[in-house]
């Protein structure tokens, strides 16, 4: 039986707009499991990114409980929460958020400094660059790299601290088809090596990489599809299954 790494009970998120409250997440009960590639899809405005930010500790829910890696997040001080975000989880953004005045190597390494010796961090940064086919981009600045290369640097940066869970908010959303596939291949490979991933996407191709697909609408999770591990040989078959599932949900 898989270990639960994230659990929510009656999780809610409400935004106050003037005198009106907007309930974006509505009493969500959810379990995320170790080693899964969990993908969240759904209708526009259905709460996908809000849920991702809540269950990653990037944003606080309005009510309900959230447990990540056995930690009750509501009882965590800001100091402990800051350390938790740096050592236990990591986040990949659609916009990459690389520092433009740092090279690819520096963008990765600076995140690791302080958690290990500089020598070890530098060594691991170089190993990650090699693993993701970025050795020649080591000394390039973000402006000198393609979108796909920048996003792979962002993945390396997310991995430098050995996080137990990686969260991704539309990580292929701003990339062309070729670059998007490279990034998905990278994420699939690290998941196959045991890394837990939770990702929001609107892209059917990205959804086929999921071991588990959740569908959201109107602030609730309405359905899920278990796909097992991705295989490129069965990509067309998986895509058809995912498409039929999404069509049933009114996607």
From TrEMBL:
InterPro entries: AAA+_ATPase (IPR003593), ABC_transporter-like_ATP-bd (IPR003439), ABC_transporter-like_CS (IPR017871), ABC_transpr_LolD-like (IPR015854), MacB-like_ATP-bd (IPR017911), P-loop_NTPase (IPR027417)
Recorded GO CC terms: membrane protein complex; plasma membrane
GO molecular function, one term: ATP hydrolysis activity
SUPFAM superfamilies: P-loop containing nucleoside triphosphate hydrolases
Keyword Transport tagged: yes
ATP-binding in keyword set: yes
Alphabetized UniProt keyword annotations: ATP-binding, Nucleotide-binding, Transport
Name of the protein: Putative ABC transport system ATP-binding protein
Protein's organism: [Clostridium] fimetarium
Lineage: Bacteria, Bacillati, Bacillota, Clostridia, Lachnospirales
């Amino acid at each position: 039986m898989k270990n639960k790494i994230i659990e929510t009970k009656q999780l809610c998120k409400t935004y106050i707009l003037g005198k009106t409250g907007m309930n974006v997440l509505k009493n969500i009960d959810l379990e995320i499991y170790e080693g899964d590639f969990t993908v969240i899809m759904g209708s526009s405005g259905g709460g996908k990114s809000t849920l991702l930010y809540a269950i990653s500790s990037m944003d606080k829910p309005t009510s309900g409980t959230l447990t990540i890696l056995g930690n009750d997040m509501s009882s965590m001080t800001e100091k402990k929460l800051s350390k938790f975000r740096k050592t236990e989880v990591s986040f990949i953004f659609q916009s990459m958020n690389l520092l433009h005045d740092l090279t690819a190597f520096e963008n990765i390494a600076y995140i690791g400094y302080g958690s290990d010796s500089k020598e070890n961090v530098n060594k691991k940064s170089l190993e990650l660059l090699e693993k993701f086919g970025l050795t020649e981009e080591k000394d390039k600045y973000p402006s000198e790299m393609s979108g796909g290369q920048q996003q792979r640097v962002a993945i390396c940066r997310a991995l430098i601290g050995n996080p137990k869970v990686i969260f991704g908010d539309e990580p292929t959303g701003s990339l062309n088809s070729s670059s998007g596939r490279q990034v998905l291949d990278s994420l699939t490979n690290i998941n196959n090596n045991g890394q837990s991933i939770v990702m929001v996407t609107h892209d059917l191709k990205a959804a086929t990489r999921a071991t588990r697909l959740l569908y959201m609408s109107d602030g609730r999770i309405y359905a899920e599809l278990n796909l097992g591990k991705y295989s490129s040989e069965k990509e067309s078959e998986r895509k058809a299954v995912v498409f039929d599932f999404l069509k049933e949900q009114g996607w």
